[in-house]
What does this fold into?
Amino acid sequence: MENSTDRTTDQTGETAGRTPAPAEHRVARTNPGTTAGSERSEPTRIPGVRYRKVTRHRPETVVIDGHPETRDAPYDTWVPVPPRDWDRVLRRGVVAVAIGATVLAAVAATAGIGGFLSTLLPAQVAYAVAVVFDCVWLTCTAIEWLERFDPRRARGARLAGWAALLISMSVVIAFGARHDMPAAGAAAASVSPTAKLLWWLVLRLYSVPLSDTTRFWLRRRQERVTATAALARQLQRLNHTEAYMHAVYGPTALRATDLENAAPPSTGHRPDTAHASAAESAAPPDEAAPPTPGHPLRTTPEPPTRPPAAAHSAAGQADFPGHSGAGDGGAPVVRVITMPSIAETVRTVLAHHPHASPSDLTARVAAVHGHRDGLAETVRRTRSRIEGNTKRRTSAPS
It folds into this structure.
């Protein structure tokens, strides 16, 4: 029995020894302003300084069974309260009083002017028009505030505001005189200039006089920035117009751009006429034939023997040496600007650079005709056709 009891005890002990231990639960907190010995210690207070209680958050990492998780745990602390800024309070109060006085003055002026105009106009229209008088001088006051750093520009808004205010006062006084109460009319008319005077004081409170050198520097900076903004707006407008033109007119717009790029600069008189072929343009000036007035326009230009840009410039110089802009009979002639086709340009470039790479050939063609969709493929097909024709001609029996 004892052995049996001992075995039972041993088994029980072994079973108890195999019971799993509880999971580890550890919390690590990071509390700014506290020490390891006292986590909730309060910061040292300064005598004479007011404090207020605020709730803040700090990271808290909880480790359970070896797996950490972090959260933002709230905690309370005391922070010092800055003293009240009475200057700011007074400034806000002054602005609030000015706004309130302006609203009351606008209501009084609108009632007087609207009642005066209601004898000629419907009541709704009369009171709506009466609002314009106060809106004008209020707008001038706002412009004066925006131009407070430039007294010369602010002076114009100030004078315009006082002029609009005088007109409003005269109408209110006339309304009082119409009802045989000139004193009441004058009292009602004095409300608006009082509000205007209050705003004048508020503007003086916030505006800081600048020296002449500072105003000069600020004005020059404004001129540069304004010029840059104006140029950016104009470029944006031109880019928008150009994009619209290309989107609407398509290839026609590209053709017009090519003609514009190929046109010679204007010299102030009617341009001469250029009807010589590429072969004639390559000849010396003394061998070039003079043009014939009234020569028909050439719809299909001949292949040039030099790059298109140089051909056009040479044609204008070789065909008309010493020409003054008139034909043999004295009648003015018109210069005809003709652009070669892409095939002619490719043929001309291959004549001078037969081993040009596809990218180089495409770049040279784009310099004349401009960049467009599918230009590289068009140049490749044209080159293959030209080189194929050349090979067939050379291989054909003579």
Summary: Residues 341-393 form one domain. The mean pLDDT is 75. The CA atoms of residues 346 and 383 lie 7 Å apart.
